[in-house]
Specification:
Length: 91
Protein backbone atom coordinates (compact mmCIF):
# COMPACT_ATOMS: atom_id res chain seq x y z
CA UNK A 1 0.00 0.00 0.00
CA UNK A 2 1.10 3.55 -0.69
CA UNK A 3 -0.07 6.66 1.10
CA UNK A 4 -0.02 8.74 -2.05
CA UNK A 5 2.52 11.40 -2.80
CA UNK A 6 2.85 13.62 -5.87
CA UNK A 7 4.37 10.87 -8.03
CA UNK A 8 2.16 7.89 -8.95
CA UNK A 9 3.90 4.67 -7.87
CA UNK A 10 1.74 1.99 -9.48
CA UNK A 11 1.01 0.41 -6.10
CA UNK A 12 -1.75 -2.19 -5.74
CA UNK A 13 -3.43 -0.15 -2.97
CA UNK A 14 -3.47 3.66 -2.58
CA UNK A 15 -4.82 5.67 0.34
CA UNK A 16 -5.68 9.34 -0.25
CA UNK A 17 -7.43 12.13 1.64
CA UNK A 18 -9.76 14.57 -0.09
CA UNK A 19 -11.05 16.98 2.52
CA UNK A 20 -7.74 18.18 4.04
CA UNK A 21 -4.56 18.99 2.17
CA UNK A 22 -1.92 16.33 2.71
CA UNK A 23 1.81 16.87 2.16
CA UNK A 24 3.28 17.03 -0.43
CA UNK A 25 0.18 17.94 -2.47
CA UNK A 26 -0.31 21.67 -3.04
CA UNK A 27 -4.11 21.55 -2.67
CA UNK A 28 -7.10 19.31 -2.09
CA UNK A 29 -7.96 19.85 -5.77
CA UNK A 30 -4.63 18.25 -6.68
CA UNK A 31 -5.44 15.30 -4.41
CA UNK A 32 -8.86 14.87 -6.08
CA UNK A 33 -7.18 15.08 -9.51
CA UNK A 34 -4.88 12.22 -8.46
CA UNK A 35 -7.90 10.11 -7.51
CA UNK A 36 -9.51 10.87 -10.89
CA UNK A 37 -6.25 9.96 -12.67
CA UNK A 38 -5.99 6.64 -10.85
CA UNK A 39 -9.67 5.80 -11.38
CA UNK A 40 -9.18 6.44 -15.11
CA UNK A 41 -6.12 4.17 -15.20
CA UNK A 42 -7.01 0.84 -13.65
CA UNK A 43 -7.98 1.64 -10.05
CA UNK A 44 -11.32 1.07 -8.33
CA UNK A 45 -12.59 2.81 -5.21
CA UNK A 46 -13.17 0.13 -2.59
CA UNK A 47 -13.78 2.26 0.50
CA UNK A 48 -14.22 5.86 1.59
CA UNK A 49 -15.08 7.58 4.84
CA UNK A 50 -14.71 11.12 6.18
CA UNK A 51 -12.65 12.29 3.20
CA UNK A 52 -10.31 9.29 3.08
CA UNK A 53 -10.41 7.09 -0.04
CA UNK A 54 -8.90 3.62 -0.54
CA UNK A 55 -8.25 2.60 -4.15
CA UNK A 56 -7.29 -0.85 -5.44
CA UNK A 57 -5.53 -1.47 -8.73
CA UNK A 58 -7.77 -3.86 -10.66
CA UNK A 59 -6.20 -3.63 -14.14
CA UNK A 60 -2.58 -3.10 -15.21
CA UNK A 61 -3.36 0.08 -17.18
CA UNK A 62 -0.24 2.32 -17.17
CA UNK A 63 -0.61 5.48 -15.07
CA UNK A 64 0.93 8.59 -16.71
CA UNK A 65 3.96 9.81 -14.76
CA UNK A 66 4.25 6.63 -12.68
CA UNK A 67 7.61 5.80 -11.12
CA UNK A 68 8.08 2.41 -9.47
CA UNK A 69 11.09 2.38 -7.18
CA UNK A 70 13.50 -0.48 -7.61
CA UNK A 71 16.93 -1.52 -6.34
CA UNK A 72 18.78 0.69 -8.86
CA UNK A 73 16.28 3.55 -9.03
CA UNK A 74 16.89 7.16 -8.10
CA UNK A 75 14.46 8.63 -5.56
CA UNK A 76 11.99 11.17 -6.90
CA UNK A 77 12.51 14.57 -5.31
CA UNK A 78 9.13 15.93 -4.27
CA UNK A 79 8.31 19.59 -4.83
CA UNK A 80 7.47 21.18 -1.50
CA UNK A 81 4.49 23.57 -1.51
CA UNK A 82 5.51 27.18 -0.77
CA UNK A 83 3.57 27.38 2.48
CA UNK A 84 5.11 24.26 4.02
CA UNK A 85 7.61 25.19 6.69
CA UNK A 86 6.32 28.76 6.90
CA UNK A 87 5.50 30.33 10.23
CA UNK A 88 1.71 30.11 10.35
CA UNK A 89 1.55 32.77 13.08
CA UNK A 90 2.95 35.42 10.73
CA UNK A 91 0.21 35.08 8.12
Amino acid sequence: MVIADRTPRGADWVLLRTNDRTFPFASTDEQRQRIDLLLAHGYTEVWHRDGTVLLHRTTPTPVPGAHRPGPDSTPVREAVPEDVGANLLLR
